Amino acid sequence: MATRSQVREVVVQLLYAYDSGNEGISKFVEEILEEHKIKNAQKNFAQELFSGVIANLESLDLRITHQLKDWDFERIGNIERAILRLGAYEIVFSKVDKAVVINEALEIAKNFSYELSVKFINGVLDGIAKNYKLSLKEIQVILEQQKISKEEEKARQKANETSKESLQKTIQKPRKVFGKSKVNTLKNTKSSRATKAKSKKSHHFKDKKSESRDSKSSKTKDLAAAQTKRGGKSGEKIQKNFKNLTPKDK
Questions:
Q1: What is the pTM of this model?
Q2: Where do the record's region annotations for Disordered lie (predicted)?
């Protein structure tokens, strides 16, 4: 005969199949239980668990959602969801000790899920056990408040991001203008320096040309004067020689 732990494992598998879209599995529960040699009292126990979870899915999911922090119910894996639903059902509706229920759920999780999932399931079921006396209306109010708080937090974050972006643009804009003006100033300074340098070179070259021309002109004048002087002296000398000539020589 199967143990209650084995019965719970089979029920989790049935819930997993149901949650995966195979809702017709309900018609074959008895056959599946017999295949796993679950009979008599254990069979009744298994059927009670399976039908009880299906009948209270909405309220169970609400209690599970109430314990989720920064996590969406839809993101929970099918096998983890099946384990949580079964555990939540036993905590809320059965007389089995809550610590035993949680321990059984964790053992199933170790066989069918990951280590992180085991910790996750433990935290959620522990929260449900501590708050199992809360009515569904109270849980709905709490969830609604949490939803509003999340929306407000998102709005604040969005406003902060928008404010930061605006501030960054405001800070960056003057820097860009200053950067451009600085570059332009440097360019203008370099251009001005280059122009001055060219101007100096040009003036220097012109001065040299002018000096060269003046020098040449002066030399030409001196040469002309010298030639004239020499020419004058030669004329005087010829005249003197001419005067000294005798009539015979003439």
A1: 0.62
A2: 150-250
